[in-house]
Structure formats: structure tokens, C-alpha cells
Amino acid sequence: MTEKEKMLNGKLYDTRDPELIERYHICRKLLQQYNYLDSRLLDKRFEILSQLFKSISEGVWIETPFFCDYGENISIGKNTFVNTNCIFLDDNEIIIGKNCLIAPYVQIYTATHPIKASERIVREGLKTRYLTSSKAVHIGDNVWIGGSVVILPGVSIGDNVTIGAGSVVTKDIPSNTLALGNPCKTVKEL
Fold this sequence. Notes:
Blueprint: H1 3-8, E1 13-14, H2 18-35, H3 42-52, E2 55-56, E3 61-62, E4 66-68, E5 74-76, E6 81-82, E7 86-89, E8 94-96, E9 101-102, E10 107-109, E11 111-112, H4 117-120, E12 121-124, E13 127-134, E14 137-139, E15 144-145, E16 150-151, E17 156-157, E18 162-163, E19 168-169, E20 177-180, E21 185-189
Parallel strand pairs: 2-5, 3-6, 4-7, 5-8, 6-9, 7-10, 8-14, 9-15, 10-16, 14-17, 15-18, 16-19, 18-20
Antiparallel strand pairs: 1-13, 11-13, 12-13, 20-21
Helix pairs in contact: 2-3
């Protein structure tokens, strides 16, 4: 099994694998083009995002700067808006539904590391590697994620959810709810 296959299957993998590093460099080049492109060049912006992401639907708007690890594991549904300075660490799938509003500084993480240092740090002579694993993040349709929210690996957020600003989402959030806090909890059905 390749390191990329391990990554996408939630197993421990080496982020410095040549195949993953090559995709990282491709992603950085596309992000650089996107983040410095004239905002009026809508067709070119969409073209770059189409090369970057696994899938992107019509009407998606992503403010710059935007950051991600690989890009190829991100799917975004129709008419979703991603505001400035968002970071999507897509070491696994990040699937975002349609009509979502994602506020500035939202961070979506799929990557995680073993808690014990002895399990995450591998020393081989003079070389040191850091093992990582990943879990997919799924966000439903019509979701509003407030500013500076952090979404941790493996979380699913249902449809028609509002996540309050500054929340840290550590567990699944059911559809049709308002959730907020650290850790994020459902506080009201909508």
C-alpha cells in the first residue's frame, strides 16, 4: 500500500513520501496562482480551482488568500462561499455541500498524529519522520460556519446547521441545529 493509500484509508503514513510531496508542490503552485490572481478574472479563478480540487460546482466563491495541503481531496457544492484566510488540511476528504457560508479564518483539519511522541516520531539514523493519520470531514448543505471555527478530523456536520464563531468542533453535529462553544455542542434545534 502506498503512503497516499494509507493516508486516504486513515492509516499512519509518511507525509514526506515523494508522491505526496509532488502533489504538495503542484498544490502550492496552483494556490500561488489563485491567491495572486486579479479578482475580476472569474473564469481563470474557476479554472484554477477546477485543477486544484477533486470537484467544484458552479457558483462557488473562494476569497483569497486560501490555503490547503493537496487540494485534490476537496469537493465543494454549488453556491458555497468560502471567506478569506481559510485553511483546509485535506490529507483526507473534505466534502462541503451546497449553499454553505464559511466565514474568515475557518480551519478544517483532517490530519492528526499519535498522542505519544514515541509513536509519532520515527528516527532512522540521522533522518527523522513524523507519522500522521487522517479522517475525512463532511459538511452538509446550507451550513453556516462562523469566523475562526476549527473543525477537527473525522467530524460530520449535518444539513441546515449554524456553527457559532470561535467554536472548536470535536464531534458530529446533527442537522437542523445551532451549535457553539469549545468543545462545540448543540444548543438549539432550528
